[in-house]
């Protein structure tokens, strides 16, 4: 598996608009735009930082994963995403190593990226996302 870089940090928020006040208004990061991913019950907003991004995640439904995260832990960093060269090879290697996966196969995430999540029980409590952008 070849990890290329940290692709983004996912931050769970109650409101992307309120989040923009800090990330753009205070820190001066450019707002790249928002996108709703209906399958994941989330609206995302990206703020580029060098070669990586900050991704704000706002739930679109009370039973969505981000809403459940905020209910349990409050707003804050929800996941770290690593860009990989080949997500299929990365998942196969992780399965071979016995790593517990949330996603056995990649799915499509924001921006059309192929994504897959590793289970936090396999990563010392950190939700890890693998991401491949073509």
UniProtKB/TrEMBL annotation:
Q: Where is the VOC domain?
A: 5-133
According to its UniProt entry, one GO biological process term is: L-methylmalonyl-CoA metabolic process
Task: Supply the Gene3D superfamilies for this chain.
Answer: 2,3-Dihydroxybiphenyl 1,2-Dioxygenase, domain 1 (3.10.180.10)
Where is coiled-coil annotated?
A: none
Instruction: List the CDD domains hit by this protein, alphabetically.
Output: MMCE
Alphabetized InterPro entries for the sequence? Glyas_Bleomycin-R_OHBP_Dase, MeMalonyl-CoA_epimerase, MMCE/EMCE_epimerase, VOC_core
Lineage: superkingdom: Bacteria
Keyword annotations from UniProtKB, A to Z:
Metal-binding
Molecular-function GO terms, alphabetical: metal ion binding; methylmalonyl-CoA epimerase activity
One Pfam annotation, family name?
Glyoxalase_4
Instruction: Report the family membership.
Output: Belongs to the methylmalonyl-CoA epimerase family.
Q: What is the protein name given in its UniProt record?
A: Methylmalonyl-CoA epimerase
């Amino acid at each position: 598996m070849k990890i290329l870089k940290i692709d983004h940090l996912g931050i769970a928020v109650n409101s992307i608009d309120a989040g923009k006040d800090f990330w753009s208004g205070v820190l001066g990061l450019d707002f790249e735009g928002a996108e709703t991913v209906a399958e994941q019950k989330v609206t995302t907003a990206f703020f580029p930082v060098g070669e990586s991004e900050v991704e704000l995640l706002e739930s679109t439904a009370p039973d969505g994963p981000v809403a459940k995260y905020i209910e349990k832990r409050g707003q804050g960093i929800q996941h770290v995403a690593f860009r990989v060269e080949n997500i299929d090879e990365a998942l196969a290697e992780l399965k071979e190593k016995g790593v517990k996966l949330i996603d056995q196969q990649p799915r499509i995430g924001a921006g059309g990226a192929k994504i897959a999540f590793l289970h936090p029980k396999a990563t010392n409590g950190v939700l890890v996302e693998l991401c491949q952008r073509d």
